[in-house]
Specification:
alpha/beta; 12 helices; globular
Length: about 375
């Protein structure tokens, strides 16, 4: 028998306590000013989720330096005093409405398609990304082939995450989430086919996860032990939805094991459907050398098994039963919603009252005459 109140019980995450186990997933919006400053519309947007009962809100991705990190035009930043002051208005409003809020900090790397500072892109290696740029974010055509990042630039990447985390703390955020998922720079280092380096950052899974671990440790050292920090991890990417780790559960053991010792308070897992096996089985007729793992564990469950920190799960959990089950089955401690939250800014309050939930209407969210763009990229 499931406990209908399980989702609404409070939970400790690092040094904070959430009112419930339901959060808003980070979703790119491209609604800041051209200079990357958060707007009053963003204050209203994030506060609406707090009024709707969500215990935790994770912001859209925030760029981390004035060089290669920005992913899209009108992306918000958190690298100077003006941007910090603007985000403080968002944070204060969310707090007044009773929720906690984390800043998601990101370097776009080779997937950058709109950067006001510089036109070239960098990545772990000079490998052209799969797929095409997202036209919704004013991109067009194939992604550019990035230049391989130098050792000095890798240091600058780390410093960018560190400085942005400091600004987040100064703005009053309750924590930060390092974006290590969805095909952006840190995930590019983690991914075998985008990382062809032959130094300590390339080759083995232990080497490819090194930058994610280094950034996590550096941020922890910079913000102190009492500020909540975590990292977002996925297999799929905005430009390669179906990617799976080649090493399967062994990769998961290495990646989550390393991150679990990097000073993080949580790992945020995002998959298309959070409860599904991370490495699906194939029919026996295909044979045992098919390259698929025999485990039925979801990626969230593998993160819980090997990371041994608080796990947040994301991926089509807008059905309250699915959301409750993934926590009840101890695959995760908290869930986040993307499309479900966009369709129901008051999802938590509705579920508490047993009221019907609205379905996500892509036409309303994505139609071109809407200035404020809300979009969750399937993950």
């Amino acid at each position: 028998m499931t406990d209908p109140k399980l989702l609404f019980k409070n939970v400790t995450l690092g040094n904070i306590t959430l009112n419930n186990r339901i959060g808003v997933a980070p979703m790119a919006r491209a609604s800041a000013t051209f200079e990357g400053v958060a707007t009053n519309q963003m204050v209203s947007y994030y506060t609406s989720f707090a009024h709707g009962g969500f215990g935790l809100i994770i912001t859209e991705a925030i760029y981390t330096d004035d060089k290669h990190s920005q992913g899209y035009f009108n992306n918000p930043g958190l690298i100077n005093e003006e941007q910090t002051h603007a985000w403080k208005k968002v944070v204060d409003s969310v707090h007044q409405a009773g929720a906690k809020i984390f800043a998601q900090i990101m370097h776009a790397g080779a997937l950058s398609q709109g950067n006001r500072f510089i036109q070239e892109t960098i990545g772990p290696s000079a490998v052209q990304p799969k797929g095409k740029q997202m036209e919704f974010y004013e991109g067009k055509g194939l992604y550019r082939t990035p230049r391989e990042a130098t050792k000095e630039e890798i240091k600058e990447v780390k410093n960018g995450f560190v400085n942005t985390a400091k600004h987040a703390k100064a703005a009053g955020f309750d924590g930060v989430e390092i974006h290590g998922a969805n095909g952006y720079l840190l995930d590019q280092f983690l991914t075998d086919y985008t990382n062809k380096r032959i130094d300590e950052y390339g080759g083995s899974t232990e080497n490819r996860v090194r930058l994610l671990v280094d950034v996590s440790k550096a941020v922890r050292e910079a913000v102190g032990e009492h500020f909540t920090i975590g990292i977002r991890i996925s297999q799929g990417k905005v430009n390669d939805y179906n990617h799976k780790w080649a090493g399967k559960e062994r990769d998961a053991e290495i990646i989550f094991g390393q991150l679990g010792h990097a000073g993080l308070d949580f790992i945020h897992i995002t998959e298309y459907e959070a409860w599904q096996p991370a490495f699906p089985k194939v029919e026996e007729t295909i044979g045992t050398n098919s390259g698929f793992d025999n485990s039925n564990l979801s990626l969230a469950a593998l993160a819980k098994k090997y990371g041994k920190v608080c796990i947040i799960a994301n991926g089509h959990l807008e059905d309250p039963i699915k959301a409750r089950e993934i926590i009840e089955n101890r695959q995760a401690d908290i869930i986040t919603l993307g499309k479900g939250a966009l369709a129901n800014h008051d999802w938590v309050n509705k579920v508490k009252k047993g009221e019907p939930l609205a379905k996500f209407d892509e036409e309303k969210v994505l139609r071109p005459d809407v200035k404020i763009k809300d979009f969750e990229v399937l993950l």
